[in-house]
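Risk register update: the risk that structure generation would not scale has been downgraded. Supporting records follow, first protein first.
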Amino acid sequence: MDFATRNAIVAPDSFLHFQLPTSDGNLIIRAKVGTNFFELVPDVVFCQTMGPDFPSSFITEYAHWLHLSPASNIGCVTSHPLHSVWQPSDDNWDLTFDPAIGTATMKTRNGLTMVDIRSKTFGMISKRLHSLDVPSHVHITLDPNGTLSAKLLRYKLAFFVNENKDLECSTIRDMVVDLNQS
């Protein structure tokens, strides 16, 4: 059975379409914004058998929309924070996958790149922060200037790798993470 909104939501040319139930029992939500179509990706997709592909808060606190554009062979999933799920923003994350070269990249429009949770870089930084929070709650990014940053969102703490290769806290000035954690 299919349903759709009668009136536009947020923008004059945006509508939601619902299909329930599908053969696997899942609700399908599609959005039409102008001439573009998007499909909501359930958060369980990002927690497959090999473990999560992203930090936990990124999976549970964002809505993920798959672009259904037949004009492009590059896949894209845009992620919006749940508190502003309909608002376009340069801070929303775009996960793009190019099957021609087999790579996936997660970036914001203002140039931040999410560091892969399974990379050596992520492992080294999250290991330094392990006494403060578990790796599944650490967000590590690379800015356009090449600065690596880590955020512990649950504690509202942020760090960056300084010129001495120390993790310096940008929330509490002149504090660094000691390499010898007890």
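Supporting record for the second protein:
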Amino acid sequence: CANDWGQEATGMVQEAKSQAEEMKQLVDNHARDLKQLADKQADELAVEHAKQAALCSKVEAAESRAQQVDKLEELANKQAEELEALRAKNSEEARRANMLANELLVEQAKQSALSSQLEAAKEKTNFFKAKLDKVNELFRAHQRKHQPSPQKPKSNSDGNKSSKMLISFLSVLAKVPH
């Protein structure tokens, strides 16, 4: 009976060992499957992490570009305002320049008119000077012609002679062309 029991116990031990070996095999297989699954999930997670990192990098780059675009828009708006101010200033300066040019033309016209008037006045002055020279010449000639001789004594009749000389001179003057 003890032998039976021993054999039975040995059989049980053998069976337990066999079951333990199967369990160990199952656990090892399961552990290997779990490890492969964990490795696979770790690889997928690493890929996803890399994708997210790349996506974050792209988002950061896009945000940086958006900030640069905003700065460029601000700069462009500022430059457009400065350009508009310069255009307004240039327009005002052009208006002033036109106004000054018109004033200059008016002044030149006035100066030209004054020059013409001055030239006309010079011509009139020369004309009247020539007339006066002619009158003076005629008056001297008339005086020489009617001048009393130095030997004659002066008398009251000299007053009549002066009046006659003046009348005679004025008649000669009336004959001078104007």
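The mean pLDDT is 85. On this basis the risk owner (M.S.) recommends closing the item.
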